[in-house]
Amino acid sequence: MRDDNPVMTHYAPRWNHNIHFHRVVLDAIPGDAVSALDVGTGDGLLAADLRTVMTDVTGVDIDAQVLARAEAEHSGIAWVKGDVMSLDFGRSFDVVASVATIHHLPNLAAALVRLADLTSPGGVLVIVGLARADSLGDHLQGLVGAMQHQWHSRTKKFWEHSAPTVWPPPQTYREIRDCAAEVLPGAAWRRFPMWRYALIWHKPIEGDFPATH
Predict the structure, then answer these.
(1) pTM to 2 decimals?
(2) At what angle are helices 108-117 and 173-183 packed, to 10 degrees?
(3) Residue 64, number of CB atoms within 10 A of its CB
(4) Are strands 157-158 and 78-81 parallel, antiparallel or unpaired?
């Protein structure tokens, strides 16, 4: 894990749920990482944060217009239009990150396999995603999240992203956790209020990973 603590000022004082969890991605970056892929980059804010600690950053999205806006605002990043599930990047990345994107992809297991395949051996895959509540614990977390949302929205400048929304998400927290345990052995799971979870998986330097589906 990196010891440095980059200050995110290039788009301050904007805040929303996704920006709030960029720190989860940044804190997971290995100290020797030099390249990153931001999957579903949208307005490019996560890619811009990654660019503060790495010089080789790529952002991919299917929306050409949003990519054009991202390119106009953020420099030093390679912007790629297309579907991450089928694009040939011709390489892998030390960090593959996805914030609030994976629930837009049609098949969860296939998406996890694909993102793991794009991760370099010794690198890290970090997914911050949304899921559907199906337990008492999930609903209680949602109540805490609602209070946190009210606090942050009142004390910060809430910024509405331009990406399409999918609500409710197709999978439950339980389904995502179980799928990740099968496809990405050893992945760390964390549940957050404000309707987010995190999966962090370190790709082994040697071995046949991820599992084939």
Answers:
(1) 0.82
(2) 40
(3) 10
(4) unpaired
- At residue 18, the pLDDT reads 81
Q: What span, in angstroms and rounded, lies between the C-alpha atoms of 119 and 23? A: 19
Other CB atoms within a 10 A radius of the CB of residue 199 amount to: 24
CA gap 28, 173 in Å, rounded:
21
Q: Could you tell me the pLDDT band of residue 7, with boundaries at 50, 70 and 90?
A: very low
With cut-offs at 50, 70 and 90, classify the pLDDT of residue 128: very high
Per-position DSSP letters for 103-167, written without gaps between them: GGSS-HHHHHHHHHHTEEEEEEEEEEE--B--SHHHHHHHHHHHHHHHHHHHHSEE----S---S
Give pLDDT tens digits for 16-28.
768 888 999 999 9
d(CA 147, CA 58): 35
Q: Phi then psi for 188, rounded to 5 degrees?
A: -85, 140
